[in-house]
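Explain this protein:
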Amino acid sequence: MNCPVVTGPFGLGAALAERELAGLLRSRIATDGASGGRLRVAGRDYLNFSANDYLGLADHPAIKAAFKAGIERYGAGSGASPLVTGYSRAHQELEETLAEWLGVEAVLLFNCGFSANQAVLKALLGKEHLLWQDKLNHASLQEMGSQLPCKMKRFGHNDMAALERQLEPNRGLIVSEGVFSMDGDQAPWTELATLAARSGNWLMIDDAHGLGVLGPGGRGTLAAQGINPARVHIQMGTFGKALGVAGAFVGGSRELVEYLVNFARHYVYSTHMPAAQACAVSKSIELVRAADDARAHLGQLIARFRQGAQALGWQLGASDTPIQPLLVGESSAALQLAERLRDRGVWAGAIRPPTVPVGTARLRITLSAAHSEQDVDRLLDALGASPAATTVEEACHG
């Protein structure tokens, strides 16, 4: 890195140099074409085990056709915020479809999951409230929680006894994820719902990585665990993972949605997602609801990968979802392993601090219904050509 020296109050170059020295500097790599089970970078094709396209829908012809038809009808952009003229019939129909699919009274659309999560916390929580978060919740939740006037308490990952000790009656909001984005495991939603009801606090799920993949009809983590959606006051999900498009939503009671329409600044003051995008998401939901065969195939691939990786001596996280953390330990070792895989035509991203705790760097391997058994075997062959890590200290949940 050759960063020019920048004078002034911010010390940008020094911060970048420090991160580079620690082996944690991030950079972007431009890809060509669609990002699914395959990836093209700098003229070379790779098997892609880094995308969140769990059902292989990001390049689906029916979704692309719906997007194109939406552009013809509504244009390329929405033109305004949703409270001006940016709210179309396509947005309304998507909200109604989502509400029916997920069993909630109403839904509100957002441009991305980051803004949806932050909008909810900022709109609901004041200085008189408490916020309880799993310590492995997404950065959007952790960041906003630390900035609000309310008091935030973090409990150990999926530690319901610790959460119960922290709870105070009728004081605020408990937030956890359906599927944790870096570990791939699930939160215990029966216990969470019981604790929330017993304490009189509200409960919120971030189901970005469970929606479409888990449960009957792909309805997500709550459906997979047999939880009545009425027991969870707020559902957040995204369209950029298993649904293969982009955007997000918040679902719950009609009163909640009406409140957010009036008080959620991320919604009120942002140009709305294009109506054509809403058309594409509606088509994607139609496909997801009928994708039982794809979900079954994905489950078989997950089992095949886990069995093969463990036989090779690699340490995996406790995940039965498409997110399979292959635990390495040190950042440099994770980067070196990712590079060796790329040399063999396999793309798997190295995840390092601060995204994960120090000493728990990993390859975040994501499987897709677009992969075949032969693709998984090729990944395993590439891993077999690299020495497996022998020790990782409490890599996932330390």
Observations:
- The radius of gyration is 21 Å.
